[in-house]
Specification:
The protein is an alpha+beta fold and 106 residues long. It is built from four helices and four strands.
């Protein structure tokens, strides 16, 4: 887990993503956060039934190949990390709460 946290941080640093600032649409009150946790299917259940979480999309982040297959990512040849994208209402659940759940589940 520590190794994965280090990889997640490195990916954040290389790609210039600010983990404290999820993307947001101010007009709609919707924000989007992406969490990479080694196994996207392991992370998703922690967010499934939270009030304020509008949708969860599993997939991959980073990497060098467009639209890689699962096998290519699992082989480690593409540089991708398994991740989930969480669309949420910051009026009902905070990014800090989502991040706390992330740290308790990786």
């Amino acid at each position: 887990m520590v190794t994965f946290a280090a990889i997640s941080f490195l990916s954040w640093w290389i790609h210039g993503n600010d983990a404290s600032m999820p993307s947001a649409n101010a007009r709609s009150g919707i924000a989007v956060a992406t969490f990479a946790g080694g196994c996207l299917w392991c992370l998703q259940p922690a967010y499934d039934r939270l009030e304020g979480v509008l949708s969860i999309t599993p997939g991959y982040t980073g990497g060098t190949k467009s639209d890689p297959t699962d096998e290519e990512v699992l082989d480690g040849d593409t540089g991708h990390a398994e991740a989930i994208e969480v669309v949420f209402d910051p009026g009902k659940i905070t990014y800090e709460k989502l991040l706390d759940i992330y740290w308790h589940n990786i």
